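A note from the maintainers: we've had questions about how concatenated examples are separated. There is no special marker in the raw files; a new sequence line simply starts the next protein. For clarity in this README we add a label.
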Amino acid sequence: MGIATFTDEYTSPIPPSRIFKASIVDSHNLIPKLLPQAIKSIEITQGDGGAGSIKKINFAEGSPLKYVKYRVDELNEKTFTYGYTLVEGDSLADKLEKITYEVKFEESGNGGSISKVTSKYFTVGDFSLKDEEVKAGKERVLAMYKAVEAFLIQNPDAYV
């Protein structure tokens, strides 16, 4: 088993508390509404949405992926930190044991936020990740992030 680790940073004009509430805490309601062409639904299949919960993302018809399930490892609304582990689904196939994510939103100093994301891919056997596979996953996450950001800019009273 190998582990490949990636760290990314994204900036946003939205304060950490708003983007955290919208993109993390209420993602199961908001994301499918904002991206129906990509996400059919997000279900909480176990728990209340907090640490220990299991969520299932069902992708839209025509997507190369059908679904993924992930476990919420940490959800801290005071520090704006979120950790989760992808544990089942098409994106893992038989090549990845799991993928873990650690997300932290911090104030940027100009009223906005900086999102720091660390992802760890735990590979099976001697499998090595292809750059284009990792890039595609990052692009999907960034598209969701930008859709939430655009929604919050257009709706300044949402998630305050």
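[label: protein 2]
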Amino acid sequence: MDSNTAPFKIILGSSSVARRQILTDMGYEFEIMTADIDEKRIRFEKPEELVMALAEAKADAIVSKLQIRDDQVKDAEPTLLVTADTVVVYEGIIREKPSSSEEARKYIKDYSGSTAQTVSSVLVTNLKTGFRKGEWDRAELSFDEIPDDVIEKLIEDGVVLSVAGGLIAEHPLISPYVKLLMGAIDSVMGLPKQVTERLINESL
């Protein structure tokens, strides 16, 4: 996608470094806004329902921030708001961002020699027309045994505290221990490219 000729604007409703990188890799230029919602207040038992509800809540919060008036939008080029969410599912239990280094350490130790899934949602809202569409995507990762010293280095790095389930498969410390990936790495990272591209096109 040649962002210089795109007849629309994009707002990425996320502070995630990984999502920012993925959208950049897709060839888009975009503005960043954050929703600042209390994600813990939104609870669903099914991970697919949870990530979709969180993406919706983020979109609603950002739309409220923008306070767009109809007369401001009529002659403007379309603006697409992209929101997303990701959780990790381990042994049937939903995992969000670790609340502490201790919890992150436990999470990563659990993945060692085992398997985890990620469920990621993408929601695209056309701020000009009001059209909104979202989908979720699933990926599965199997890991070799992860040495304790590697886990400690990941904890010291700190980035595992800011990602769902403390799972950051693309990190150079952890990627050598990914034995099998079923699905797309960009889905694991929080923004599945194919889903995002399709939703952008369908939202115009």
